[in-house]
Amino acid sequence: MKERNGISKVHLRNDVVMIILLLVLAGAGALYLFAFRGSGDTVNVTVDGELYGVYALSEPRVEEIRTGEDGSRLNRLVIRDGKAYVESASCPDGICAAHRPVFRRGESIVCLPHRVVITVVTEQRADSPDIVA
Amino acid sequence: MKNRSQTVAFLGLCTALALILAYVELLIQPLIPSIPGIKMGLPNIIIIFLLYRRGAASAAGVSLLRVLLVSMLFGNAMALIYSLAGGALSLLVMLLLRRLNWLSPVGVSVAGGVAHNVGQILTAMLLLETAELGYYLVVLTVTGIIAGVLVGLCGSLLVKHVPSKLRF
Question: Residue B111: pLDDT above 50?
């Protein structure tokens, strides 16, 4: 069959080749960005998806992130030497406290039991480009 | 071209259709949980159709009108800048690929969709002076391909099945 829905075989083949090329480019871009991502300057803390606090990596501090209805769930976030880590936590698994310090853009520490997510970002954020046309 | 008035009426109809598709896209946007900036690009169905059935000038004209009108109706000056950048690059790529005749309408649509994203992200990088958005481009390329295939399929169906007796 030469044509199907008005699309010839040659065209179809070229379409597929182009799409694969684009995907390879995107993959290479992702790898590049992942390998060379720089340091962030800020950590965002969200609890249950809602923003809890924003802290600069440049200022050493200890922040007690208290969550739960009575504030009994505790994650002690420490920022020191431009890195952020969870020093101790009252969660059962303690995975967040075992996590190595984060400082690269996009790195995060997650405490599943307390639904706390700590993410490294850069302060300068883009507002969403073109949501209309 | 048989009749000037027919041409004007037909292109007006196409512009209106593109506007409605842009509006429909706005309406369904909240239904799909997504990263801001991800769009189907439904109006591109009309552009693809015009590109294959009427030629470059009609496609470019309707595309430009669409971008201007949609930004005026639903957007703001910022949206217009992003849309123009995306729309122009997308149109250029599609015109070129149509001329070269390497790809099917689906392929042209995919290239156009990805080019639209590239144009917008490059503009955003220039305006916001940040290279951060490179991440965004990787995601948008993948979603752009998916959207481009769907839009391209719709477009090529129109190209094939709208009766050619409709002389416009």
Answer: yes
Q: How far apart are CA A133 and CA B71, in angstroms?
A: 6
Domain at A42-121: CATH code: 2.60.320.10
CATH of the domain at B64: 1.10.1760
Q: Give the span between the Cα atoms of B15 and B62, in whole angstroms.
A: 6
For residue A117, report the phi and psi dihedrals to the nearest 5 degrees.
Answer: -125, 125
Angle between helices B44-53 and B4-28 (to 10 degrees): 150
Binary contact (B132, A126; C-beta < 8 A) = yes
What's the confidence (pLDDT) of residue B34? Answer: 62
Tell me the CB-side half-sphere exposure of residue A103, using CA atoms within 13 A.
11
Does B167 reside within a domain?
Answer: no
**Residue B36 falls inside a structural domain:** no
Q: Answer whether residue A1 shows pLDDT above 80.
A: no
| Model pLDDT for residues A30-76, shown as the tens digit of each residue | 888 777 767 788 899 988 888 998 999 988 999 899 888 888 889 99
Nearest CB among A11, A106, A133 relative to B103 is that of A11
Are residues B135 and A106, on separate chains, in Cβ contact within 8 Å?
A: yes
Give the domain ranges of chain A.
Answer: 3-35, 42-121
